[in-house]
Specification:
The chain has 287 residues and is of the alpha/beta class. It has twelve helices and eight strands. The chain has a single domain, classed as P-loop containing nucleotide triphosphate hydrolases (Rossmann fold), CATH 3.40.50. An eight-stranded mixed beta sheet has the order 3-2-4-1-5-6-7-8, with helices on both faces.
């Protein structure tokens, strides 16, 4: 199965909603389509204003929508540098798919010849390190384990220290799933970030928020708080294969200005795709 075929299959439920864009008789119909796909009020109004100003003829909303989306999405592909140790911090709410995303990233980059180390800094959930350890063994990468209640920053410190002394290319730091309203856990995440900066002032190199597409617009408010507190560098959108709310990717890019790094389109280790805006738009709007 090609990347495009897999993506189109994952977007099947969302695409069913977006097919209404081709059949919309007026802007009110198009507005209903966008809101149903969880594009959100602000981004929907932006798109509608763009269409009004473009003097669309014969209600060719689908073609115009494709052009607008192309302008919204920036080139967001993450390129692993050829030299130097990359430190990537992964955050998200409970159940967003953090652990499996870390495993998928490790699997992807290891297959590209990179040496990966995982830091099990989710010390809040008893089974977190064990679950991550199972995934690490499955994809064949090393892990710095932790115990429930252990200082999360200390685990990250040990992992980075090990990473610097070895020949590792990337350290993936797992963190406890936290709601954006949990100030104590948000402070813990900020502490992990400060620990990274003890090794290098500009570390971590990346801080990615894992967003569950099935929760739609609720994820935007979460992302705003995480972004404000931690200065995110990107988002990974998961569980696209199980929802009709895939349109939530649009406000993530437009309202938050966050590059979409990867898309999770299934449960297997290989079910992670780099975000390609042209491929995504084509898969979203194809018949």
């Amino acid at each position: 199965m090609t990347f495009f075929t897999a993506l189109a299959q994952a977007l099947k439920k969302t695409r069913r909603v977006f097919t209404g864009a081709a059949n919309a008789k007026n802007l009110e119909d198009l507005e209903a389509v966008l809101l149903q796909a969880d594009v959100g009020i602000k981004s929907t109004e932006y798109i509608l204003d763009k269409i009004r100003n473009s003097n669309v003829e014969n209600m060719k909303y689908k073609e115009t929508l494709a052009k607008i989306l192309k302008d919204i999405f920036t080139d967001s592909r993450y390129q692993v540098p050829s030299t130097g140790l990359q430190i990537i911090m992964i955050i998200g709410i409970p159940g967003s798919g953090k652990t499996t995303t870390i495993a998928k990233l490790a699997n992807l980059w290891q297959n590209q010849g990179k040496k990966i180390l995982i830091a099990a800094s989710d010390t809040y959930r008893a089974a977190a390190a064990m679950q991550l350890g199972i995934w690490a063994e499955r994809v064949g990468v090393e892990i710095v384990f932790s115990e429930k209640g252990q200082d999360a920053g200390a685990v990250a410190y040990d992992a980075i220290q090990k990473g610097q002394s070895g020949t590792y290319d990337i350290i993936l730091i797992d963190t406890a799933g936290r709601l954006h309203t949990r100030k104590d856990l948000m402070e813990e995440a900020k502490k992990i970030k400060r620990v990274c900066q003890k090794f290098r002032a500009d570390a971590p190199d990346e801080i990615w928020l894992i967003l569950d597409a099935t929760i739609g617009q609720n994820g935007i408010e979460q992302a705003k708080t995480f972004h404000h507190e931690l200065h995110l560098t990107g988002a990974v959108v998961t569980k696209l294969d199980g929802t009709a709310k895939g349109g939530v990717i649009i406000p993530i890019a437009m309202e938050l200005g966050l590059p979409i790094r990867f898309l999770g389109i299934g449960e297997h280790a290989q079910d992670l795709q780099e975000f390609d805006s042209e491929m995504f738009i084509q898969a979203l709007l194809s018949d």
